[in-house]
Amino acid sequence: QVQLVESGGGLVQAGGSLRLSCKASGRIVTRYAMGWFRQGPGKDREFVAAHSWSGGNTNYADSVKGRFTISRDNAQNTVSIQMNSLKPEDTAVYYCAADFDRASSASIRSIEYDYWGQGTQVTVSS
Asked: Is 44 exposed, middle or buried (0-12, 13-18, 19+ CB in 10 A)?
């Protein structure tokens, strides 16, 4: 089993920044891609960003391009997302996820991720 634990959420004013991190632990024996998803109040879970094992592939939702940057440290089994110029519509619970079947990809599809963290709340006030 693999465990994912997010950290770094909180309350920030519009225009501010936050950095979320996610650490993977447990039985990790192969390479894996990682992604971030979010679920806002009354909304479905949506893709935010993804990063392949090597970094050759990254994807971003149109709504966050130019504002969010995903990065990872494979030696530490962590993935982070730097969120700048935050907007009230970025308010959501943010989840990290790991895809062990497509390590060279950066899938935008939640169904392709095998393990999920418990989520961390990000609230952006106007």
From this structure: exposed
d(CA 124, CA 9): 10
**Looking at residues 2-9, what average pLDDT do you find?**
96
**Pair 46, 60: CB distance under 8 Å:** no
Distance CA 58, CA 35 (A): 9
Cβ-proximal residues to 91 (8 Å cutoff; 6+ apart), any chain: 40, 41, 122, 123, 124
Asked if 102 contacts 33 with a C-beta cutoff of 8 angstroms, the reply is: yes
Dump pLDDT digits (tens) for 74-90: 999 999 999 999 999 99
* Cα→Cα distances 72→81, 89, 125, Å: 9, 25, 28
Which of 111, 12, 105 is CA-nearest to residue 67? 12
